[in-house]
Amino acid sequence: MVLSVRGLSVRFLMPGGRRIAAVTDAHFEVAAGECLALIGESGCGKSVLASALLGLLPANARSVGEARLGDLDLLAADERTLARTVRGRRIGLIPQSPAAHLTPVRSIRSQLEETVAALTGVRGRAAVRTAAEAAAERAAFPSDHLDRHPHELSGGLAQRAATALALVGDALLLLADEPTTGLDSDLMDHTVDELRRHVDDGDRALLVITHDLAAAERMADRVAVMYAGRIVELGDAAPFFGATGPRHPYSRALLQALPDRDFTPIPGMPPELGDLPDGCAFAGRCHRATDTCAAQPRMTDTAACHHPHVPEDIRA
Domain total for the chain? Predict the structure, then answer.
């Protein structure tokens, strides 16, 4: 198992003693040769979870639980270990806001070359340059833009530059946070295929955080659905996106909101993470909710729901 997360919770401590439960009791695994897609609406805690794995939470955040990358507990590791042996080397990151993660005063070429020199065994100016150009090509970053600076790039080009940097280290785990943002359909297809190739040799793993369900369907072996800080469904991608369909009503509503499906918006809004109900956080938006939903449901089979869909009513 490349990554094993057990009981991961993240709380933000706000002025006045208020606490925001950004992630609550997350459990999941990502195996070698596998892509897990973590999906859900914006603000559900997906990116906070990713930041916890990398030790990049702000000072007012507190995390508990366990997140093991091989034999290393990422949550217990100190900053020196994370900076020197994890980030870029064992975990590659495609950030959600790529332009903010690129060095503004240096060209993309120089940033790629520096990363090649730091993370690989490539030596010699010519060899480093060739390796940097190869990484750019993998991410469909145009060679005639390599000498440009981040402020000269569109959002889509910045996304491709960040993808190229993440692919340099050939990391054990690639963590891609909204990797298709700002890309047109052809470039999205290229990125999806390249990320999938990253894990297809069986030694590496991919954790994709996205609200792009079309990209998730193409990339993922398994799917984890997050709502209001909790993983509410976890299972194989084929039945989730196929005829069997999801079991949790929220997961089903996400798919029904797609333009190529029912295009039916989910009623209401997610609850504030600082003011979550004691029971199921989706109950106020769910047509299957009953009084039972006033209690927090536990994960059983693949869904944390008191009234999950089963194949018979999914086909209805």
Answer: 1
Answer yes or no: is 304 within a domain. Answer: yes
What domain range is 245 assigned to?
3-85+207-314
Please report the pLDDT score of residue 254 as a whole number: 93
Position 231 in a domain:
yes
Is residue 285's pLDDT more than 60? yes
Residue 184 lies in a domain: no
Nearest-5° angle of CA 149, CA 155, CA 161?
Answer: 55
Distances (CA, A) of 110 to 129, 141, 240: 9, 14, 43
Strand order in the sheet with 19-30: 19-30, 3-13, 61-69, 72-73
What distance in Å separates the CA atoms of residue 62 and residue 23, rounded to the nearest whole number? 10
Residue 130 lies in a domain: no
Residue range 149-178, pLDDT digits in tens? 999 999 999 999 999 999 998 899 999 999
The pLDDT of residue 211: 87
pTM of this prediction?
0.94
- CA 202 and chain centroid, separation: 20
Q: In sequence order, what are the beta bridge partners of 4?
A: 29, 68
Q: Which residue has the tokens 């030790």?
A: 55
For the stretch 5-26, pLDDT in tens is 999 999 999 998 899 999 999 9
In terms of Cβ atoms closer than 10 Å to its own Cβ (0-12, 13-18, 19+), residue 299 is middle
